[in-house]
């Protein structure tokens, strides 16, 4: 008998689960679209704006290539889609206080790359801010510093995943509501536990497990790391259902893996997709930095 060799577990401790980057669908098969002929650093012309809005209504993920936006330019582009979340900050101050255009990264408080992830939840399937009564409409990331290997972002099309469920399951889950909370989210990703202040500030909310996309009318599963259980069901049964549905959602056919290139700007619709980051190699050595903006959405129905 041969001894089993176990690869050493990386210090970040994010379990390898779900499809790997090379198993997943193309952007087009997933339902996304690439746009290469618009310079987002300039104000959009009326026809460009119409086109981008039309594409956003029809695709859960838009990939723009070869962009180079300052934070101010990203802010201006984001405004096309609606109200930017957390806009109370003086946006002329380009610093950590520049909250409307913030950063996702693997950097620690001193700005050094680290395997101890401050944004741990980003590595688990989720829809942004679903722990809010009014969650995010869209999120966009613009690549600033990329690691040599790994660090992709995966997106799962939750409308396609819903449509592919057996009719019996669809009937069983239509009308259910799931509890989402910051506290549960922290527990489920093994992150620093929520403080009593955070729990008071972000009390649990419930949302339809199957939500209707206001533009397309399509139903989509609404779930992820912030969702913990089902209203009116025993907790364990609700957890089991959500686990089963996430397994379904992350099937390779429903997933697109975005391999970041310098100059990429990617935006996604949180109403009909979930996403997660994949860890990159040697996270304690290589930096991964992206500029992020988020647009406020509406109450899911
Ligand atoms: C986010 C997020 C994933 C990534 O910014 O909301 O989940 O790949 N990011 O950084
Ligand atoms: Mn996210």
Record the SSE blueprint:
Blueprint: H1 27-30, E1 33-35, H2 46-58, E2 61-64, H3 71-79, E3 102-105, E4 136-145, E5 153-157, H4 158-163, H5 167-173, E6 177-180, H6 182-188, H7 196-201, E7 205-208, E8 210-212, E9 219-221, E10 227-230, H8 235-249, E11 255-258, E12 265-269, E13 273-277, E14 289-296
Parallel strand pairs: 1-2
Antiparallel strand pairs: 2-12, 3-14, 4-12, 4-14, 5-11, 5-13, 6-7, 6-10, 8-9
The structure holds N-oxalylglycine and manganese (II) ion.
Manganese (II) ion (MN) binds next to loops.
Care to give the gist of this entry?
The chain is α+β, with helices and mostly antiparallel strands and 301 residues long.
State the fourth-level CATH superfamily.
Clavaminate synthase-like
Question: The CATH topology, please?
Answer: Double-stranded beta-helix
What distance lies between the first and last C-alpha atoms, to the nearest angstrom? Answer: 57 Å
Strand order of the largest sheet: 1-2-12-4-14-3
Apparent shape: globular
What would you report as the Rg, rounded to the nearest angstrom?
19 Å
Number of helices: 8
Query: Can you write the helix and strand succession as a string?
Result: HEHEHEEEHHEHHEEEEHEEEE
Oligomeric category: single chain
Bound small molecules, by name, code or SMILES, are: N-oxalylglycine, manganese (II) ion
**Would you identify the regions where 5 or more consecutive residues have pLDDT less than 50?**
87-95
CATH class (first level) name: Alpha Beta
Q: What percent of residues are in strands? A: 15-25%
Proper CATH architecture: 4-Layer Sandwich
Mean pLDDT: 93
The main sheet comes to: 6 strands, mixed
Number of domains: 1
- How many individual β-strands? 14
């Amino acid at each position: 008998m041969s001894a089993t060799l176990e690869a050493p577990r990386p210090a970040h401790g994010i379990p390898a689960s779900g499809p790997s980057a090379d198993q997943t669908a193309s952007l087009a098969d997933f339902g996304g679209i690439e746009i290469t002929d618009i310079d987002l650093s300039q104000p959009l012309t009326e026809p460009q704006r119409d086109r981008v809005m039309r594409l956003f209504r029809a695709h859960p993920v838009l990939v723009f290539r070869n962009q180079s936006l300052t934070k101010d330019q990203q802010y201006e582009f984001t405004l096309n889609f609606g109200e930017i979340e957390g806009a109370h900050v003086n946006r002329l101050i380009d610093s950590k206080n520049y909250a409307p255009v913030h950063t996702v990264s693997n950097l620690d408080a001193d700005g050094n790359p680290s395997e101890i992830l401050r944004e741990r939840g980003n590595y688990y399937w989720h829809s942004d801010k679903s722990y809010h009564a009014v969650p995010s409409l869209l999120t966009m990331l613009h690549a600033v510093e990329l690691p040599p290997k790994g660090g992709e972002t995966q997106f799962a099309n939750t409308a396609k995943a819903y449509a592919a469920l057996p009719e019996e399951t669809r009937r069983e889950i239509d009308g259910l509501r799931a509890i989402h909370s910051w506290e549960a989210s922290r527990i489920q990703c093994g992150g620093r536990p929520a403080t009593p202040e955070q729990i008071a500030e972000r009390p649990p909310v419930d949302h339809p497990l199957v939500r209707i996309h206001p533009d397309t009318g399509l139903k989509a599963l609404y779930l992820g790391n912030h969702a913990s259980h089902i209203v009116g069901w025993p907790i364990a049964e609700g957890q089991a259902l959500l686990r089963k549905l996430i397994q379904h959602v992350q099937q390779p056919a429903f997933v697109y893996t975005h391999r970041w290139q310098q100059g990429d700007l990617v935006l996604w619709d949180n109403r009909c997709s979930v996403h997660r980051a994949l860890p990159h190699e040697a996270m304690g050595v290589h930096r991964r930095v992206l500029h992020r903006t988020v647009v406020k959405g509406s109450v899911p129905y």
